């Protein structure tokens, strides 16, 4: 019988490693075989460290119980190709970084390595983690987009080529591709996971996030990844609990369904799925009340574009002026626009975002969660776009934790997701509610058949 340990979630694999019914080497070999068998169709990877992963797995298997004492010992993890991993290329899908190999890990990679994770390789990103479509295909329907900018990370997890991957989110770049690919995308409070050693898009908006096939997996990763870092001025110093224990499945009590802000802007299909999801929560004992965003949606979206474009222009400034032709059309437009934004408009956008964060946090002091769609519409055609980040922008701007769970598959066999958000540093509550939704409502990930 063929080894199908590639089907295991991160948590399932760790439990089997602990029981002794699986070795790290077998898990890694199974994943490498899965990658070899279907990578040509999905195109999720830019670099797979086959030999390095096998060497690390064999070392772990030979270390006995001492090696398995680390919280993620033997768990294979993939990395979006804007995150530095020692000895692996980091090119950010740009010819300007062609051949660059960092000599040290990003903080997130270093924490996973120290926790015993096996660093499997690098996944496709859009150029500089913005919005120009990459080569990656949606595993559920190859002519459609997997979303972006963490395109390869979401596609790899959905296709069973990695149990977990790291991504980044500036607008919707973890949750949107996760929703498009039918997996669990999670981003914590802004600054909870340090960004040291990563390519910057917008330093006041960038978040590190996880892509997995269960909320429990996200909790295990967060326990290792969270915590202060001297290299990231935005990192938070709050205590880090054991999120896997603190986020035991728990039915949420009172939630705010942001229906009027989001459903009129969604496609008919997405609106219907979201209405049914809210009804399922009510039927299962959750008090679902309708509410509104505290800031005008149009103003919020305009502010997001200004902040992101100005900060991207500041990061790329000299390199862009000297190498403009090396930039793809959408990022070229964004940077060019950012260079022309008046300072007063940038300051006004920052003030609006501060009000959004403050008043959304107040809303979430009255409710345990907010509920909203994960996507505006079904994944677009792959060559056209990576999709619209509009529905992720409010919680990204506010810097609040958010998660997307798969509801099922709709037209064209394409996944549809639901988004949940919680108050600042309430990741345990959010993940506990997500785990309850997975178990009681059946909102669980599946692996695409390839």
Polypeptide structure, described:
The protein folds into three domains: 5-246, Amidase signature (AS) domain (Amidase signature (AS) enzymes, Alpha-Beta Complex); 254-293 and 351-423, no CATH class; 298-346, no CATH class. 41% of the residues lie in helices and 13% in strands. It has helices at 10-19, 24-42, 50-61, 65-68, 107-114, 151-158, 175-181, 215-225, 243-246, 259-262, 268-283, 297-322, 329-339, 343-366, 393-398, 427-441; strands at 45-48, 76-80, 118-123, 164-169, 184-187, 207-212, 254-257, 287-290, 369-373, 402-409, 415-421. Strands 1-3-2-4-6-5-10-11-9-7-8 form an eleven-stranded mixed β-sheet, with helices on both faces. The model has no long low-confidence stretch (mean pLDDT 98).
């Amino acid at each position: 019988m063929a080894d199908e340990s590639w089907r295991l979630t991160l948590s399932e694999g760790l439990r089997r490693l602990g029981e002794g019914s699986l070795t790290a080497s077998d898990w890694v070999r199974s994943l490498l075989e899965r990658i070899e068998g279907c990578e040509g169709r999905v195109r999720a990877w830019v670099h797979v460290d086959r030999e390095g992963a096998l060497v690390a797995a064999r070392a772990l298997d030979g270390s006995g119980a001492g090696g398995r004492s680390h919280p993620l010992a033997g768990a294979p993890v993939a990395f979006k190709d804007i995150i530095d991993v020692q000895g692996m290329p980091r090119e950010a899908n740009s010819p300007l970084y062609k051949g660059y190999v960092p000599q040290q890990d990003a903080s997130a990679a270093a924490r996973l390595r120290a926790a015993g994770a096996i660093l499997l390789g690098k996944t496709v990103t859009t150029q500089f983690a913005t919005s120009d479509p990459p080569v990656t295909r949606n595993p559920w329907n190859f002519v459609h987009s997997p979303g972006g900018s963490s395109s390869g990370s979401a596609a790899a997890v959905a296709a069973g080529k990695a149990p977990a991957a790291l991504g980044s989110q500036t607008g919707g770049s973890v949750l949107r591709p996760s929703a498009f690919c039918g997996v669990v995308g999670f981003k914590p409070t802004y600054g909870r996971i340090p960004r040291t050693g990563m390519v910057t898009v917008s330093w006041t908006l960038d978040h590190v996030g996880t892509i997995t096939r269960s909320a429990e997996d996200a909790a295990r990763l967060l326990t290792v990844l969270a915590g202060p870092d001297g290299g990231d001025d935005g990192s938070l110093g709050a205590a880090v609990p054991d999120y896997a224990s603190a986020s035991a499945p728990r039915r949420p009590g009172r939630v705010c369904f942001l229906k009027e802000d989001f459903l009129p802007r969604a496609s008919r299909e997405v609106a219907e799925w979201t209405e049914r999801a809210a009804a399922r929560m009510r039927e299962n004992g959750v008090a679902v009340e309708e509410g509104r965003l505290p800031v005008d949606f149009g103003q919020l979206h305009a502010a997001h574009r200004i902040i992101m474009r100005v900060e991207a222009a500041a990061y790329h400034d000299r390199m862009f002026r000297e190498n403009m032709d090396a930039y793809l059309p959408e990022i070229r437009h964004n940077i060019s626009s950012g260079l022309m934004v008046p300072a007063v408009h940038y300051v006004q956008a920052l003030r609006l975002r501060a009000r959004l964060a403050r008043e959304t946090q107040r809303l979430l002091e009255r409710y345990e969660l907010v509920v909203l769609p994960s996507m505006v519409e079904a994944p677009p055609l792959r060559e056209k776009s990576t999709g619209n980040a509009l529905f992720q922008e409010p919680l990204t701007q506010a810097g609040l934790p958010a998660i997307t769970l798969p509801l099922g598959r709709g037209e064209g066999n394409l996944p549809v997701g639901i988004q949940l958000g919680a108050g600042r540093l309430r990741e345990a509550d959010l993940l506990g509610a997500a785990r309850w939704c997975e178990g009681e409502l059946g909102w669980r990930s599946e692996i695409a058949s390839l």
